[in-house]
């Protein structure tokens, strides 16, 4: 009797143990894939739009990999996030496979063959500001469609048509505007009407309100062409005809030949190491990758964790590193196909050590003392970023843009998509200040077929051969410093992914010689200490909109979606 009872008890314990194990495995890697902390096992998408993030996760659930999901998200964002999501712009992709192989794709816009060095200057040689910002002449040759087609051809798993279907549906059936989007469209109504006399779906005669459905029939038809014909559905045929007709209506210069000739380019990643973490990021014509590695190496010798998050010592060190890195950016970075960028020299340990040896803890450096040449103009802050990881551990980090919010504010008639205003990212007149008081560099002068310099900084981090973080953000010149601080927040200050994204930021970019500070980023005592050393502290609005994914030591994916926007992390 006693033996039988003991045997039954053992079986009962074993059954409970097996049930617990099956429940854990179900949550960790099975149908649920989620633990009690809101972390996910099977994959995650973090983007500027809940609708786009859901599109990406749906693709992952269908068996698509991270690149498949990225293609679907990019086209979905062109519909549901029109101020920066795009098919009429360009960007950069950083890819890391589950096996540790990495690659980067440059689908940045290019100047048309008819572009000229002085194309935005008046008769006296002074810049005509609006000429490079609004209207058809402000647009570079778009790269996003070519980039997605190239990424899919190399790494995709699902059929192209399946990846385009959600965007086609969202454009044709419409989607509900958020309150933020309704405000933006209302605020730009006059500009849209002026620059689109033939009409656009983005203009409503009455006022847009939250929950209104935005239907974009012309965009849906364009996406159908791309769905059926791949890149040729955009760079040739009816859509290309519409682009050229739009150019002719408004004095633009992009030709059919420019469109046919556009190619996305695979480039070797910029890599570095920070406290044992491998950093994989974008090479020129993005300035972000080199700058990020420089920044991380500049602060690595110092005990940031002991000093604490946004303490006076931490902030002073970050500012002095940023001052030197942005000065280097100005003088040395441009399109490597047109300019000999000294990439290896800029990220050498000895070079960075020498650069950081010249600051004084007792007082602020001045940017006049840190002379590395002339500063190049930076993007406007309306860009978008998304991060994706699939169940196998393949990761994609993509930052893409039209440049300004809603780009050139011109919607291609008959095709329904916004043109970029990326030509403003060139140095309109090298050596002369632009509308922001920034001085252009020779390395970034306009030339036919050249890609304009960018601050976009998509990045992936790994540790001991395993994926650790996928990160990036919009924000123009603040992109680099936002990604930098987010990485420090996780590695040095032990913050969760969401906390690291939420954390208030500071920014310094050499010129103007000031420290931009988000509200509540610094406490009053820290501010007093920094001002006493000669730092000019300038309050400003939100900095960046970081979207990132962290892989925990338990193998779960932890999302960080920036509350500064309508961003959303969705996992499974």
Query: Radius of gyration from the CA trace?
Result: 24 Å
Report the uncertain regions.
1-31, 373-378, 432-440
Kindly, what is the distance between the CA atoms of the first and last residues, rounded to a whole number of angstroms? 49 Å
Backbone shape: globular
Q: What's the main sheet like? A: 7 strands, antiparallel
**Count of structural domains:** 2
Oligomer state of the chains in this structure: single chain
Q: Provide the helix percentage.
A: 25-40%
Order of strands across the biggest sheet? 6-3-2-10-9-1-18
Beta-sheet strand percentage?
A: 15-25%
DSSP summary, beta strand count = 18
- Helix and strand content put the structural class at alpha+beta
Mean pLDDT across every amino acid position: 91
Q: In DSSP terms, counting alpha (H) and pi (I) runs of 4 or more, how many helices?
A: 19
